[in-house]
What we know:
The protein is α+β, with helices and mostly antiparallel strands.
Amino acid sequence: MPNVASRFGRLGWLxxxxxxxxxxxxxxxxxxxxxxxxxxxxxxxxxxxxxLAYNTGAAFSFLxxxxxxxxxxxxxxxxxxxxxxxxxLKRLGRDDTWLAIALALVLGGxxxxxxxxxALGHVIDFILVHWQNRxxxxxxxxxxxxxxxxxxxxxxxxxxxxxxxxxxND
Length: 170
């Protein structure tokens, strides 16, 4: 009879996904309640500010002017990706901790932005990184950060060999 750990894979890491979701939603509520649209509070002059922006599109406001249909498309994609991530977590082995953390971060971020899309019709962004007030990156949020870190971890995981522990050489 398989033990509980092998039966549920690495689903215990869903706690990290929930933590990301909670931090994301609390931070979005804080900044939405504290700032006017596009107001900036400089944290580190010439580099970092808090601001409030809404994104009706995807990353970098892709399809933001789509007329509303993109809300449901991106929500559907997030639901499908989230389901795949949960199944993937369940199938992971005991030694797949790095991968489990990566998947949990991506899942938590996806759920944070999914909630915004369904409940509000847009994603709340509040982090603005810039260079001397000239070259702005698009505003982003904690969910986006978790997705980015998780995706980087997933990319790095591809360089690990699952059987020998050696790196993959081209």
